[in-house]
Amino acid sequence: MMSKTLALRIVLFFRIALDAAVSSFPLFLQPSSRRQLTNTDTCRSSRSLHGKADDNDPVAVAVAVTSRQGEVDHILRTRRTINKFHPTLMEGWEEIIQDAIISATYAPNHKRTEPWKFHLLGSETIRQICELNAELVSQKKGPKAGERKLERWLQMPGWLVVTCQKTVSSSGSGSSEEDGNGETTKVTISNDDANMDISSSLAREDYAAVCCAVQNLCLSLHAAGMGTKWTTGKVNFDARFDEIVGIDAKKEYVVGTIWFGTPENAKGKMYPDAPLKKKTLEDVLIRSA
C-alpha cells in the first residue's frame, strides 16, 4: 500500500508541473482564481487549511500552500516596467483600478498614518501635464525633442499620480498621531523633506510606506492583466504639476506617476524578459551567527 509520504510527493510533483504549464499562459487568459485572490477566496483557503475536515490531510494542506505560494511568486517575478500600451483601456478598467488601490493601502505602514493619496487623471488633465512636460523638454533639448515627447506621452492610456502626506517631523508643535503601540507622537507639517535621511523621522517612514503601496498597486494590476510604469521625471516635481493635478503642496508631495494599461506584446511575449541580475543570491543574502 502506498505511503502517505510517497502520495504527497507524487501529488506535489504533478501540481507543480501543472502550475508551471498554466503560468505560461497570459495572465488575462488564466482562470480568475489565478489572476486575483478575492476576500472570498481568502476565507475559503483559510477554511480548507484550518477546518476540521482537512486537519489530518497533509496532502491537501501541502498542495494548498504550495499552490498559493507559487501563484504569488509568479506574479512577483513576472511584473515588468511596461513602455508600450494599447491605446485604449480594457473593459472594466475602473473597477480594476479601484481594487488595486484598495490592495495598495494594505502596504506596511509602521505609524499607521495612511500617508498615501491616489489622483486618477482625466483626459484634459493628462493633456495639460503632457504639454507641460513637452515645454520642459523643449527648453533643454529643443522644440523637436519636445514634440516627440508630447506625442509619446499622449499615447499613455491611464494616469495615476501617487502622493505622500507631508508629516515630516516627530517633534515640535502640530497634530497628534497615535502609532500602532498606542503611543502618541507629535507631528508637524513642513515643506522641507531634507530630514528624510534621519532613520527615525516620520517622513522616512511615510515615504517608505507609500513606495510599498505603489508596489502593491503595480502587482495587483499585473495580476489583472494590466501593465504599469512608475515615472519620476522632472515634471512630477514642478509646482505647475501640482496646480494642474489639484495637489495641495502644503500637505502632500508627489512620489511618482503611474502609467497603466494593457501591455502591447513585444515579440509575441506577454511581458518582457527580466533584466539580467547583476547580483546573485549569495551577493545579497548575508547570514549572521
TrEMBL record:
The keyword Amino-acid biosynthesis does not apply. Residues 1-23 form the signal peptide. Residues 168-188 are annotated as: Disordered. GO terms for molecular function: oxidoreductase activity. SUPFAM superfamilies: FMN-dependent nitroreductase-like. Residues 76-261 form the Nitroreductase domain. Its cofactor is FMN. Keywords: Flavoprotein, FMN, NAD, NADP, Oxidoreductase, Signal. InterPro entries: NAD(P)H_nitroreductase (IPR052530), Nitroreductase (IPR029479), Nitroreductase-like (IPR000415), YdjA-like (IPR026021). Gene3D superfamilies: NADH Oxidase. Belongs to the nitroreductase family. This is Nitroreductase domain-containing protein. It comes from Chaetoceros debilis. The lineage of its organism: Eukaryota, Sar, Stramenopiles, Ochrophyta, Bacillariophyta.
